[in-house]
Every structure is written in C-alpha cells, then in structure tokens.
C-alpha cells in the first residue's frame, strides 16, 4: 500500500509505504521526478509536477523503508523500482521524500482584503488558474470558504480572467473540498463569456 500524507490533497504529500502492517517513509537520496511519476500513477493522481525532498510535508514516523530509489518512470508500483536495502540506509526523517501530482488541487483567494476574500484561484497541473462564475453558486462558494478555514460565504463578486487556465466546478451537495465536486478544466464552452469567480467569506485569513 502507498499513500501521501501532510499535503493539501490526496495527490500531494510525503510518500508513505506499508510493509507488513507498518507504515514508513522513503528517503530523498536520489529521489527525482521519474520516482514521483510512479507514485502519482499508482495513486491515479496523473503525473508528477514536483518531487520535493527534505521533509517538505513534515517529518514522518516509523521505519525508512526505501533509500536511493531509482525508478525509470514506467514502473507500475514503487516496490518494482531498484533501491538500497532498508537496513543499509543512512537517512533520518528530515530527508523524507514527497511528491506533487498533476491532479493535486489547491485554492487561494487573491486581490481581497485578506486570505478569506478575493478572486478564486486554483492550482492544478502545476499552474494557477481562475474559476468560471457560470456555475459558481452559494454551494460552491460555501465549500471553498469551509475548505480554506474561512467560515461561511457572504458574497460572490466577479472578476476578470487574467490567468492561463479556466476551471469550472459544480457541486450537487456539500463536500469537504471542490475537488470532490464535478469539475472541468480548460473547456471553452461552459466558460464562454464567463467572468472569474470570487468569494467573500465571513472569516479572516492571513
């Protein structure tokens, strides 16, 4: 089994593996994009857009199960990649390896008075994009405010699109994040003549 921990979605975080019922981490010695590609594909998270080391997502616990991982990038599982034997490593948890996959989504609000107000921007496939307001209703705004720890949505102002991509979200029920609603990326028809969605939440953020 494999999972990502400490990230902002299931497609970003510290790489953790399970061996004989115990979860452990991977050392960042030799850790690179081909290794991260295998992890992202195994988790159905697209391809890797980052392979940070140095415990970028916090230090894990338990044994360090893999070191000097050397994937080509086409392997189906991380266990198939050559690596140093676990007992031979010279690593500590400050060297835990991480990945950022293309299907990872993160959100921010920009141009407002603080981090809980402004234009909605989504990080997806390695770049920041705006969100179309054509289906940006109370439910979508409420999901985002809650995801950001910003309380409830008060207003939904519109802005102009100034970033390269466009994302469209449609939520049928309250979800823990917008990534669990239906979404479409860079399809022109649903976003035609739309403006960029914004939200003002009743909380305050940095």
UniProtKB/TrEMBL annotation:
- Residue ranges of every copy of the SRCR domain listed in the record: 2-102, 107-202
Q: Which Gene3D superfamilies match?
A: SRCR-like domain
Q: Which Pfam families match?
A: SRCR
Q: Which domain of life is it from?
A: Eukaryota
Q: What PROSITE patterns does the database record attribute to this sequence? A: SRCR_2
| SMART domains xrefs | SR
**Keyword Disulfide bond attributed:** yes
Which keywords has UniProt assigned to this entry? Disulfide bond, Repeat, Signal
Q: Which cysteines are joined by disulfide bonds?
A: 27-91, 40-101, 71-81, 171-181
GO CC terms: membrane
Q: What is this protein's name?
A: CD6 protein
Q: What is the protein's species of origin?
A: Ptilonorhynchus violaceus (Satin bowerbird)
């Amino acid at each position: 089994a494999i999972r990502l921990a400490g990230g902002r979605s299931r497609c970003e975080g510290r790489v953790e593996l399970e061996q004989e019922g115990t979860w452990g981490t991977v050392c960042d010695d030799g850790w690179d994009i081909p290794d991260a590609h295998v992890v992202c594909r195994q988790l159905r998270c697209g391809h890797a857009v980052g392979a940070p080391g140095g415990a970028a997502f916090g230090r894990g616990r338990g044994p360090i199960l893999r070191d000097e991982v050397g994937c080509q990038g086409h392997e189906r599982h991380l266990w198939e990649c050559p690596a140093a034997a676990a007992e031979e490593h010279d690593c500590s948890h400050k060297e835990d390896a991480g990945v950022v996959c293309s299907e990872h989504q993160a959100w921010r609000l920009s141009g407002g008075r603080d981090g809980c107000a402004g234009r909605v921007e989504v990080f997806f496939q390695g770049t920041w994009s705006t969100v179309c307001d054509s289906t940006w209703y109370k439910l979508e705004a409420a999901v985002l405010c809650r995801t950001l720890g910003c309380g409830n949505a008060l207003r939904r102002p519109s802005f102009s699109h100034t970033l390269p991509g466009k994302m469209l979200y449609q939520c049928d029920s309250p979800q823990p994040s917008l990534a669990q609603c239906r979404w479409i990326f860079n399809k022109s028809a649903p976003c035609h003549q739309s403006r960029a969605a914004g939200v003002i939440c009743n909380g305050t953020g940095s």
